[in-house]
């Protein structure tokens, strides 16, 4: 009989439950977990192909120093020695960790504790910076904490679901399946898709708004005006629970201005405003099209303003809902895995919070100020300000904007550690020390999905070679740096228990994030832990708390904030670079394809890198369908297959970010993206890049 283990999909932020079965011959099969409340048995193509991605080809099986196999002791001693030396000579801010939404919460917790509490720097940032940091910043401005109030069930209960900058069908496929099924059951449920591209998601839309890139602020600031002028705001809610309404209204834009900036037909804009006004139960989901922008935080607040103005928050079937891209982007936020946050949603800028966390950790020091966010972190590496860098479970040489410059910076860094499962990633090949990590199916811990649901990832396979958990590697380095007592963990359950205890330490210092009921959890209960949504304060069970149900928010006065947002200039094109490039994902690949690229089945969906462009643009520049197109920005060029389609708006291109030099030469699309970021969140603007395009002519 196969042995079955309940675990969680390691790909997107939907966080589907998976049952993995290992047969007597060792063969692995997967199916959706019918009892998991995020997917109820569903899986998408990527989740269904998980068993095809867990072979040992290309795995790092032993630690390596400068390309030669070493023992764990040698490698860990060297890491501790180099980090300690850099700190002693150049100070705590001369070292950095760059981590990943692929890490489990327990890994994230130990990394954050080591860097912020024991090194004394906040130079720990994550590839989740590229995913949802604008939403974090927007929530903190509006709500006073990084609280995502939505649940998946809200989409099924809503009368109107607005999907802003979200290709749900490809990027959160099981949530899309749930929405599509709800719409089929209840045709009154309307869907509006806001996206410059006509994506697969738009196929179920009652209204697709193909706005100009980066004009979401104008769209929602115009909606805010419309709601006020049409008497559709909830004056009682505004008066009792918010601040800043008048200032936000003064900054809001008129209908003609919204029309002019978004480039939408008047009929469509009117229809969207009418639908939003007339529907009480509105859920607005937003994802990378909103977040990955130089105005990402303002976009988020423009959306939140509309929900606050109508009081459509904190009740079933309504509210704003940020969808996380990565499997554990939310878990990373919980433990302070961003350079500008402390553990358990506490504030690094707050002396009281710093003191609380330092005392809880019994740490010798605590980071006093925010650290370097991803783009700035790699700039600091390039400038020689970072002397020792540890990269965990991510491939920034492919995924960071200005990817060539990031590669040059890593190459020039005096000491680089990479913990990963694969030895030949574009980043791993620059490591001075390469550490073998456990992969999905081999490691134990928790992840938190977009609706704040914490689920277990459980091991059902033995670890290959000498691969060890990321938290173990960090704890061992912490011990060798002189902090043996603080990092004396003997398993993931103890780390989770400590994380839960910190969330409830001194009665709710963490504001919204509290999972204190799990503070005393032991290994057996941890192993059996069922998926649950936070908050779960001690003594209160799941389902009793809907965020903002009582109109209370997390600013000191308990009120939410409207934010006065103003549309910024969005067009970056000029005569030399006349096209706007939008980067993103495709349905069947994940990030830089280090795992999903192993599945032949997944590659049958789209087998090679490509760029979509409109037929008239293709005609004008002489690109033929399925021919090769060269795309160039001031930072470099790529050559990909042309996919000529009228789903793409004129003047724009779409290219996926997955492919790297292992799969096709000159295909790293992020080499084109400038290191331009949102001024508040630091999230890169990966969806509005001025480029030139031409037919490729081989030299
Ligand atoms: Fe995995 Fe996301 Fe697909 Fe669910 S929707 S199976 S979490 S990739």
UniProtKB/TrEMBL annotation:
The family this protein is said to belong to: Belongs to the prokaryotic molybdopterin-containing oxidoreductase family. NasA/NapA/NarB subfamily.
Cofactors demanded by this protein: [4Fe-4S] cluster; Mo-bis(molybdopterin guanine dinucleotide)
Domain 4Fe-4S Mo/W bis-MGD-type: 2-58
Lineage of origin: Bacteria, Pseudomonadati, Pseudomonadota, Alphaproteobacteria, Hyphomicrobiales
Source organism per UniProt: Shinella yambaruensis
Domain of life: Bacteria
Name the record gives this protein: Nitrate reductase
UniProt keyword list: 4Fe-4S, Iron, Iron-sulfur, Metal-binding, Molybdenum, Nitrate assimilation, Oxidoreductase
